């Protein structure tokens, strides 16, 4: 079976490194085994990430990093009032006390205790843009750095991320009623989603993360209606609006309390983010003239946006999803999928994480997306390693670090 590249949802065809052209052209065919493989969301030819197996010595992130300490069956359930997790979290006066991963998690699971590095910054904001950081990241290609990008564009974008809200995914002090922050990850893929009506998870999750074309209308009782975060690259966002329009996905989610998580996979992500905060049209690049307000609404202030740190993306790829695809002739295309990046982000910021609709071992029994009327096979993209991701989710589930919903 051949692999055919899909055109990006942008003017000017395939982008190249940074903001320039070059790279692969639409219609190029790549062999990729017997499964259905496509390339979606790549920006042309870029160099493989410079991945180091050594521990990253990075400044601590302002967002508190946590994990799911125990495994409660197939759905995330609150710990017992007098259970070990509650005891570890509750201090005098019932205040939340942050437990140490090294004291709890590392002792519980030697394998993942060596892999997780919670001192790696998850998000990037204005204070990260220093001459030292620029000199270091300008040597690495996006999404792992800034090589080929304009220093002026990157700097002017990051300087707009100057609010305290840009430094953490959510403000724990704003939720005095409880210490356990349950998060659910909702991709648009995998038809195993349609499970029956009124699933309990839709009621117990404090935060719900959605991405790409996660259709809600008509599936409210299956996938819920809560949206706390929407994660994306500009390319996956625009591709989703095109590919899933026929299923009713005609607009990016908008709500007062909704926050947007940018994955900086290309020059266009920095430019779109800057324009969205300023409330102006995109001034340059493949999205020139585009109005961010049609995606994020007319009142999208800087506080609504989060930007994943390139160091965090490199760390996730190097330690969790270092695929053998990096060693092939197509290694320059590889990066973890949007869903994988967002799920791993949740694992570094939430206390309990439940993953619904992610690939499982019996994926062939289900349609590609839960909202498809007729069953369609899961499409494998050559710039992602879905089987490696599936193995990771199984391992994290078995270790009790997250809950993977499986049928």
UniProtKB/TrEMBL annotation:
Ranges of Gly residues composition bias in the record: 12-25
Subcellular location: Golgi apparatus membrane
Keyword S-adenosyl-L-methionine attached: no
InterPro entries, per database record: Glyco_trans_29, GT29-like_sf
Entry keyword set: Disulfide bond, Glycoprotein, Glycosyltransferase, Golgi apparatus, Membrane, Signal-anchor, Transferase, Transmembrane, Transmembrane helix
Top-level lineage group: Eukaryota
Annotated segments matching region Disordered: 1-28
Membrane topology: Single-pass type II membrane protein
EC numbers: 2.4.3.3
GO BP field: protein O-linked glycosylation
GO cellular-component term (any): Golgi membrane
Subcellular location, principal: Golgi
Family: Belongs to the glycosyltransferase 29 family.
PANTHER family: ALPHA-N-ACETYLGALACTOSAMINIDE ALPHA-2,6-SIALYLTRANSFERASE 2, ALPHA-N-ACETYLGALACTOSAMINIDE ALPHA-2,6-SIALYLTRANSFERASE 2-LIKE-RELATED
Protein name as it appears in the record: alpha-N-acetylgalactosaminide alpha-2,6-sialyltransferase
Protein's organism: Bubo bubo (Eurasian eagle-owl)
């Amino acid at each position: 079976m051949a692999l055919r590249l899909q055109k990006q949802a942008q003017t000017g065809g395939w982008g190249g490194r940074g903001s320039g052209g070059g790279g692969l052209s639409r219609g190029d065919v790549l062999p990729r085994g017997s499964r259905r493989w496509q390339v979606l969301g790549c920006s042309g030819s870029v160099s493989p990430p410079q991945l180091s197996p050594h521990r990253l010595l990075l400044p601590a992130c302002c967002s508190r990093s946590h994990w799911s300490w125990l495994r409660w069956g197939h759905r995330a359930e609150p710990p017992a009032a007098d259970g070990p997790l509650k005891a570890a979290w509750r201090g005098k006066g019932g205040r939340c006390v942050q437990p140490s991963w090294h004291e709890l998690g590392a002792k519980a699971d030697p394998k993942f205790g060596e892999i997780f590095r919670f001192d790696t910054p998850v998000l990037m904001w204005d204070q990260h843009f220093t001459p030292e950081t620029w000199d270091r990241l300008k040597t690495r290609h996006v999404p792992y750095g800034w090589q080929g990008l304009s220093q002026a564009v990157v700097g002017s974008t990051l300087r707009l991320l100057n609010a305290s809200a840009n430094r953490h995914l959510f403000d724990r002090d704003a939720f005095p009623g409880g210490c356990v922050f349950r998060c659910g990850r909702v991709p648009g893929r995998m038809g195993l989603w349609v499970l029956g009506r009124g699933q309990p998870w839709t009621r117990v999750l404090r935060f719900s993360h959605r991405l790409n074309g996660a259709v809600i209308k008509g599936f409210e009782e299956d996938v819920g209606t809560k949206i706390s975060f929407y994660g994306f690259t500009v390319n996956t966002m625009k591709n989703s609006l095109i590919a899933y329009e026929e299923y009713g996905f005609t607009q990016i989610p908008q709500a007062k309390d909704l926050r947007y998580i940018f994955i900086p996979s290309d020059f266009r992500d920095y430019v779109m983010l800057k324009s969205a905060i300023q409330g102006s049209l995109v001034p340059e690049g493949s999205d020139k003239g585009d109005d961010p307000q049609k995606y994020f609404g007319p009142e999208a202030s800087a506080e609504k946006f989060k930007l994943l740190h390139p160091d965090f993306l490199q760390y996730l790829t190097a330690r969790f999803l270092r695929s053998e695809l990096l060693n092939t002739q197509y290694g320059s295309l590889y990066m973890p999928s949007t869903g994988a990046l967002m799920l791993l982000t949740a694992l570094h910021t939430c206390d309990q994480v439940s993953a619904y609709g992610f690939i499982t071992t019996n994926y062939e029994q289900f349609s590609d997306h839960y909202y498809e009327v007729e069953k369609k096979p899961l499409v494998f993209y050559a710039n992602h390693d879905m089987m490696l991701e599936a193995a990771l989710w199984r391992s994290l589930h078995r270790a009790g670090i997250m809950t993977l919903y499986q049928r």
